[in-house]
Automatic annotation (TrEMBL):
Domain spans labelled Flagellar basal-body/hook protein C-terminal: 763-800
Domain named Flagellar basal body rod protein N-terminal: residues: 7-36
UniProt KW Nucleus keyword: no
UniProt domain Flagellar hook-associated protein FlgK helical: residue ranges: 90-311
Family: Belongs to the flagella basal body rod proteins family.
Protein name in the entry: Flagellar hook-associated protein 1
GO biological process: bacterial-type flagellum assembly
Subcellular location: Bacterial flagellum basal body; Secreted
InterPro entries noted in UniProt: Flag_bb_rod_N, Flagellar_basal_body_rod_CS, Flg_bb/hook_C_dom, FlgK, FlgK_helical
Native organism: Thalassospira profundimaris
Length: 802
């Protein structure tokens, strides 16, 4: 080797050592820089014509474990999803409170129960009434607050999705720019490690937002996919994600999804903050709203069912319904109810100021019921009418009005059975507008999978239009929600509705990531299902917005005395016409020709009807004995006795239910004057007693019931329990989900930290190693410098020798 070669080799060694010292210096200066990976300069022998000519820097590379990087990105996406879920579940728990919190909905209902319990003890005092009203207002306001704030959260989520999409698109653009820079440097044979570090940082940030996978090209660029390669986010240029915010959420509505190239990819997301946000917006929060709605509906129905059974004292001058009806609306009804005109003391205005209205009326419509009331004996003292499409019963000349539902049952459009007053909402405590021109199913997880209802049919009927008489819709066990919608449309078109109108009458709406079947018509509808479909899909007149649209009756707020106390008499009957001898035939009873002409007196109530036969030979004692000898009646504590009444100058019959339960009579001979009830004057002789607090006690017992049937909702199974226990279950479920979300988030965060630590241990800068390398490179630099110095001396010696 010549001196020149030796000099060149030494210079190359000097340059190599200098380059490696520079890289080591950069490593040391970036020891605390996030995302920085240790740079390693490879060193290789420099040859010239097969002869060693020193050394040179080979590739500058990073000591990065790509497998660990892929793993940490996957876990970052999971951690991002769980972080979002925890943050919003924590907000929900704060909104709901704990089961011990005074502001929790379960505690509000407990407070209402306490208020009604006190009201049941002292119903005549104003203070307990005010307390019950205020407690009820707090409950309905809590429902409204929960409903509105849950929807506000969905609005907040939409804002966050917008921000995350904007960030993701910015990251994709930055990664695309880094790709371009890496390709350029690689073509110039320049190091690309710093740009690769920056790109890895951007990829990590992106992976927390949306699940990604990457593919590396030979030119150093990468391609980014999501959903395991299903969606291309970045090739040579980025494909921007798009999202349109929803202009305000309401219960039962959905929002827009995430799109890529005009295609909705929401369902393909597997992890990331965007995935968690969509889950909370479209699944978790709507499910919680369903739970609140179920509780609100059952609370409303339970309280109103009891309140409509009673009457205030003094009775009100009018009763106004909450149900929107038309006179032509058909009614599916059975049993009978009692209506009476009373004075301020609860006494009958006259002996005939009351009437029992048998159901169904003729015709079996709302107008038929109105006409039946007005044409009855009570119709001379009160008036029934439709005002603003609501049933109103008003006393004439200042008379008071009272109703006893007895065993009346009117079937709602969704198959529930309610007493007459409850159905029309004549004496509701919790006011909501009832109507059935819109029917909505419960939320279904899919619109295309089979509902698995037993094959059968249902009939949709209404009081006007093509639905008069009913339209029958057939369905099979394999039908999906979309199939049912199409079946309804086909049936409506077969009845004469246009295709366009049928599509507006039956359609499916998205409720988050769930689906609801909606029926809309110009009149109130009734659904009669011969099978199980209506039950399976929960077709109901109650809307998803119910919990946010309840209030305490304005009439009760304005006049607390309208809270019911007692019941219109239907448990105590007496005859008003004297019988001289109770053991001889009742005079004037049914015609003598042709003898014997047998008639029936039917006793009805919450038991199997009991029929008592009578003819012109029947005595007063016979009637009493027939009642007392009936096992059905005595089992229900209904007894009769014959007593002498000096005021009427003879014997009379007294019939009572010791439990205070309602019962009534139907005389087959009516309206003839020789019927048993007319001859004896059998009926009630008072309306309601001031001291009667039976209805107030029944209201308080509502909260003790453990048989309220709650339907299954997402997150809570169906069960029979009490109002307070179900409310506590909602609060407890929210708390449990928060704890689970927190635990899962902490686990995922810990996993990300562990993986990041492993990556840092492998790819990060170790100061001890760098300082050791610095000494080695310094010595190499010094040695190369020494070689140069030695060669220089040799050159000097050579020149001097010449």
């Amino acid at each position: 080797m010549s001196l020149t070669q030796a000099l060149n080799s030494a210079i190359s060694g000097l340059n190599t050592a200098q380059a490696r010292i520079a890289i080591t210096s950069s490593n040391i200066s970036n020891v605390n820089t996030e995302g920085y990976s240790k740079k390693i300069a490879g060193q290789e022998t420099l040859t010239l014509d097969g002869t060693g000519a020193g050394s040179q820097i080979a590739d500058i590379y990073r000591n990065v474990n790509e497998g660990l990087l892929r793993e940490v990105r996957g876990e970052l996406g999971k951690a991002g999803r769980e972080q979002v879920r925890y943050e919003f579940f924590h907000r929900i728990q704060t909104l709901f409170g704990t089961t011990q919190s005074d502001a929790a909905i379960s505690q509000r209902i407990n407070d209402l129960a306490d208020a009604f319990e006190q009201l049941g003890v002292t119903p005549d005092q104003n203070s307990p009434r005010i307390e019950a009203i205020e407690s009820a207002i707090q409950v309905v306001e809590s429902f409204e607050k929960l409903s509105s704030q849950l929807q506000d959260m969905r609005d907040d989520i939409d804002d966050q999705i917008t921000d995350e999409v904007t960030t993701a698109n910015a990251l994709l653009s930055q990664i695309a720019d880094l790709n371009t820079g890496i390709i350029r440097l690689k073509n110039l044979e320049q190091p690309t490690t710093e740009l690769e570090d920056q790109r890895d940082q951007k990829l990590n940030q992106l992976s927390k937002i949306i699940d990604i996978t990457t593919f590396s090209r030979s030119d150093g660029s990468i391609v980014i996919y999501s959903a395991a390669g299903a969606n291309t986010l970045l090739d040579r240029t980025p494909n921007n994600l798009t999202f349109t915010q929803t202009a305000g959420f309401e219960p039962g509505t959905g929002g827009s999804g995430l799109s890529l190239g005009g295609v909705d990819i929401t369902d393909t997301l597997r992890s990331g903050t965007i995935k968690g946000l969509f889950e909370m917006r479209d699944s978790e929060i709507p499910a919680i709203n369903d739970q609140i709605n179920e509780l609100a509906g059952e609370l409303r129905d339970a309280l109103n069912a009891e309140h409509n059974k009673g009457t205030a004292f003094p009775p009100p001058t009018n009763l106004s319904g909450n149900r929107i009806v038309a006179g032509s609306d058909p009614l599916t009804a059975t049993g009978a109810f009692r209506v009476a005109a009373l004075d301020a003391d609860g006494q009958l205005i006259a002996t005939d100021s009351w009437a029992d209205i048998s159901l169904p009326t003729t015709p079996a419509t709302v107008q038929g019921l109105v006409d039946a009331i007005n044409s009855s004996d009570a119709g001379g003292y009160l008036t029934a009418s439709l005002v603003d499409n609501k049933l109103v019963i008003e006393g004439q000349n200042g008379n008071r009005v009272s109703i006893n539902e007895m065993d009346s049952e009117i079937t709602t459009s969704d198959g529930r059975k309610q007493g007459m007053s409850h159905y029309f909402g004549l004496n509701d405590f919790i006011a909501t507008v009832k109507r059935s021109d819109t029917m909505t199913s419960t939320a279904q997880s899919s619109s295309t999978t089979a509902i698995n209802a037993t094959a059968s049919s249902f009939t949709i009927s209404a009081g006007s239009g093509i639905l008069v008489g009913g339209v029958t819709v057939n369905y099979t066990a394999t039908d999906s929600l979309e199939d049912i919608r199409d079946n309804i449309r086909t049936a409506l078109q077969g009845a004469g509705m246009t295709v366009a109108d049928s599509e507006e009458a039956a359609f499916i709406v998205e409720d988050g990531n769930r689906f609801r079947l909606v029926l809309e018509y110009s009149a109130n509808m009734t659904i009669n299902d011969s099978g199980t479909l209506a039950t399976k899909i929960g077709l109901t007149e109650d809307q998803p917005t119910l919990s946010g649209n309840m209030s305490v009756s304005a009439a009760i707020q304005n006049d607390p005395s309208r809270i019911v106390r007692g019941q219109l008499n239907a448990d105590t009957y007496e005859t008003s016409n004297a019988v001289v001898n109770p053991d001889t035939a009742i005079p004037g009873l049914v015609p003598l020709t042709p003898p014997p002409l047998s008639q029936t007196l039917t006793v009805s109530g919450a038991f199997t009807d009991v029929t008592i036969n009578y003819d012109n030979e029947t005595t007063l004692q016979d009637v009493a004995d027939a009642i007392n000898n009936s096992a059905t009646l005595t089992d229900n504590n209904i007894t009769a006795k014959v007593v002498f009444d000096s005021q009427i100058g003879g014997y009379k019959l007294s019939i009572t239910d010791a439990d205070g339960d309602a019962f009534y009579f139907n005389d087959s001979r009516l309206p003839n004057a020789d019927s048993l009830t007319t001859i004896l004057g059998l009926g009630i002789n008072f309306g309601v007693h001031e001291g009667d607090n039976s209805a107030a006690l029944s209201l308080s017992h509502t909260f003790e019931r453990t048989d309220i049937d709650f339907e299954a909702t997402d997150g809570l199974s169906g069960e029979r329990t009490s109002l307070t226990d179900y409310a506590a279950g909602i609060v407890a479920t929210a708390a449990t989900k928060t704890q689970v979300a927190e635990s899962t988030y902490e686990f995922q965060s810990g996993l990300v930290t562990d993986l990041s630590t492993r990556i840092q241990n492998e790819a990060g800068v170790n100061l001890d190693e760098e300082m050791s390398d610095l000494i080695i490179f310094q010595r190499a630099y010094s040695a190369s410098a020494r070689v140069i110095s030695t060669v220089d001396e040799l050159f000097d010696a050579l020149l001097n020798a010449v």
